[in-house]
Please model this.
Amino acid sequence: MAHLGEYMAALMLLLLPGTGEAHWFHQGQNFQDHHSAISATEANVDYKALFAVGLEPRAAYRLRLAAPMTANARQQGGWYLGARHSPRSDRDNSSLYVHVLQPGAVGFKSSNTEWILRPSSNPDYVRITQPNGWYLTSRNSSTDLRDGNSSYTIITSGGAAGLPEQDGEWQLEKDRWGAFRLTLRRESRYLTAHRYYDRDIRGNSSTFACVVSNSNKVPTHSDGRWILEKVTASTSH
Model:
């Protein structure tokens, strides 16, 4: 219960105006994305998962790790999910490892932390992409496995043969304090970041993100919770 109280207090601070207030919307509104209006039919069908938790389709969001994390995680809250090319992050020609980055750190660039919520093949799930269309997912190859209960997350342009249709589909669950749990459909693992192993540490101010099984015995009320901050013209630089 002590962890739960700390989580609630920290979450309230993250949601205060001026620190990244989450934005809620209602089904039936005519939304405008960066390019075009969304039709009523498209909104009611493709964006069911977003409307269910009050998020705006196709809008750009930043995903901020809620605090506090558990002692086992050894990871500070308040860091942003991002991806960018670097020797430490490049996985192959069509994918990068994803990380969380401390705000204000060297190399922090707002555009690298912007994510678009898009429809998937199943209206109960969404795809989470960067503006270039590369989508968030995970693999179980030997180079991507973190341990028996977790794998590192990547963004990929896709196109690899044999990928299941549900690759990169995420379930969004909003808790009563307004934070989100993001669970990868194909593996039923949730998105988080831990600095438990040396290989988790990307740098002094960045950590590789991972997906973790609920069987990992980490208290679920304080691990893998994210604040979704809508990107506006005043916050996009």
Observations:
- Residues 2-14 form the longest helix (13 residues).
- The two ends are 39 Å apart (CA to CA).
- The CA atoms of residues 191 and 211 lie 4 Å apart.
- The chain is about 10% helix and 30% strand.
